[in-house]
C-alpha cells in the first residue's frame, strides 16, 4: 500500500477542501477479523447516523483479516489503509480485538468480539503454575497492557462478573472498565419476535426441534476434535422430529477456505444440513429482510372531548356541529387555530361554551383528561437478526 492510494478525505491535511459536510468528531472502527467486524457493526450502527460524527473503518493486523476489507467495501464503508490510520489522529477508536492498538492515536474503546469475555487463552508465554486456570482472553494483562500502560481508555464489559475476573488478572485496567451490557444479548432479545420466521427459513416445522452444533475454531473445537459428530447426528436423529444445523466459527472458513469446508460437509449438506457457507451478519448481502408491517394510524377527531364521564359538568351541552347561539367551532374540525376563536369563528367573538375540546393541556378539566396508558415509544436501537434467505443457500451449494 503506497501513499498515493491513501484517502484524501474525510481526514488528512487537505480534507477540508474536499468534504461536503463538516463534522465535529471522527470515529475510527478497527476491524481485525470477520467476527470482530460483525460486533463493531452492531455498535457503530448506533452512532453513525449522527450528523455530527464521521465514521471510517480500517483493517487491523490479524491472522484472519484477509476477507475483512472486501466485506466492508461490499457494505459501502469507507476503509482507510492501516498505514494511514496509524498516522492520523481521531477523536475515538473502537475495536473488538487487540492487534496493533498501541499504534493508534486516539482514545480507545475496546469491547469483546463475542458474547462477553469467556474464552480461555490458548497459550501463555510464561506458562502457568500447576493447578492454575488459564487466563480469560481479552481480560488478561498480555493484551490490555503495553509497557505497563493500559491501552484502553474505556474497556466495555458485559456484566459485573467480568469485573471480578479483571480484578484478578489485570488490576491496573479496573479504572478503565465500564459495564455496558452485551450487544449479542441485545440482538437476541430484539429478535425474539421473529422466531417463527427464522424457523421457517431453516425449514423447521412446528413439531420439529432444531439441534444446533456450534464449534469454535482450532483443534479444540467440535469441528476439529469430532469430525464425525455432524454425520452421526444427521444419521441418528429422526428427520421427522429433528432438524440439525451447524454453526461454525468464521475462522474455520477463513483458515481452510470455503470450498474445502463445503467439500468436507458435502455428505451432510446432501443429508439435509442447511447452509453451505457462513451467512453474512448484515442484511445487505445474501439475507432477505422481511418487510416491516406498519400499524395503521387511528384517525382521531380533533374536537372529540376526552373528558371522563364523571368529570363532565351537569349543565354542559353535548358537542355538536354548532355551538350555542349558532356559533361554529364545536363540530368536527373546530379546534382552536387562533387566540380567541375556533376554526370558522371570526376573531374577537366570544368563544363557544360547552365541553372542553382537544385544545391542549390548558383546556382539560381539573380532573385531567383520559390519557393513554401506553408507555412512550422510542426508536429501536438494536435491530433484529435478518432472516436468512434459503434461495441464497441453494445457490451457494
TrEMBL record:
It comes from the Bacteria. Residues 273-397 are annotated as: Disordered. Residues 315-325, 346-365 have a biased composition (Low complexity). Residues 290-307 have a biased composition (Basic residues). This is Uncharacterized protein. It comes from Micromonospora rosaria.
Amino acid at each position: 500500500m503506497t501513499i498515493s492510494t491513501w484517502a484524501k478525505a474525510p481526514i488528512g491535511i487537505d480534507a477540508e477542501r474536499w468534504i461536503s459536510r463538516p463534522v465535529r468528531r471522527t470515529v475510527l472502527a478497527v476491524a481485525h477479523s470477520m467476527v470482530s467486524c460483525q460486533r463493531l457493526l452492531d455498535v457503530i450502527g448506533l452512532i453513525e447516523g449522527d450528523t455530527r460524527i464521521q465514521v471510517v473503518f480500517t483493517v487491523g493486523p490479524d491472522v484472519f483479516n484477509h476477507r475483512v476489507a472486501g466485506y466492508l467495501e461490499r457494505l459501502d464503508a469507507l476503509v482507510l489503509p492501516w498505514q494511514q490510520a496509524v498516522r492520523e489522529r481521531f477523536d475515538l477508536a473502537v475495536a473488538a480485538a487487540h492487534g496493533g492498538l498501541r499504534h493508534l492515536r486516539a482514545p480507545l474503546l475496546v469491547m469483546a468480539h463475542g458474547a462477553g469475555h469467556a474464552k480461555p487463552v490458548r497459550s501463555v508465554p510464561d506458562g502457568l503454575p500447576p493447578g492454575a486456570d488459564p487466563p480469560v482472553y481479552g481480560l488478561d494483562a498480555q493484551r490490555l497492557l503495553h509497557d505497563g500502560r493500559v491501552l484502553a481508555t474505556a474497556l466495555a464489559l458485559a456484566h459485573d462478573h467480568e469485573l471480578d475476573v479483571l480484578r484478578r488478572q489485570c488490576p491496573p485496567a479496573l479504572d478503565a472498565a465500564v459495564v455496558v451490557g452485551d450487544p449479542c444479548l441485545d440482538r437476541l432479545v430484539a429478535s425474539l419476535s421473529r422466531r417463527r420466521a427464522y424457523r421457517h427459513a431453516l425449514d423447521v416445522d412446528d413439531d420439529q426441534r432444531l439441534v444446533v452444533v456450534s464449534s469454535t475454531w482450532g483443534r479444540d473445537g467440535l469441528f476439529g476434535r469430532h469430525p464425525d459428530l455432524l454425520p452421526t447426528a444427521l444419521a441418528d436423529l429422526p428427520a421427522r422430529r429433528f432438524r440439525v444445523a451447524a454453526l461454525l466459527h468464521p475462522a474455520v472458513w477463513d483458515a481452510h477456505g470455503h470450498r474445502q469446508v463445503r467439500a468436507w460437509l458435502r455428505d451432510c449438506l446432501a443429508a439435509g444440513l442447511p447452509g453451505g457457507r457462513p451467512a453474512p451478519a448484515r442484511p445487505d448481502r445474501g439475507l432477505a429482510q422481511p418487510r416491516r408491517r406498519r400499524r395503521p394510524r387511528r384517525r382521531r377527531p380533533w374536537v372529540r372531548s376526552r373528558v371522563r364521564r364523571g368529570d363532565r359538568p351537569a349543565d354542559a351541552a353535548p358537542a355538536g356541529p354548532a355551538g350555542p347561539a349558532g356559533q361554529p367551532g364545536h363540530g368536527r374540525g373546530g379546534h382552536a387555530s387562533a387566540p380567541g376563536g375556533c376554526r370558522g369563528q371570526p376573531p374577537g367573538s366570544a368563544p363557544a361554551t360547552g365541553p372542553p375540546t382537544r385544545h391542549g393541556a390548558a383546556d382539560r378539566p381539573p380532573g385531567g383528561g383520559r390519557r393513554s396508558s401506553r408507555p412512550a415509544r422510542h426508536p429501536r436501537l438494536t435491530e433484529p437478526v435478518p432472516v436468512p434467505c434459503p434461495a441464497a443457500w441453494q445457490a451457494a451449494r
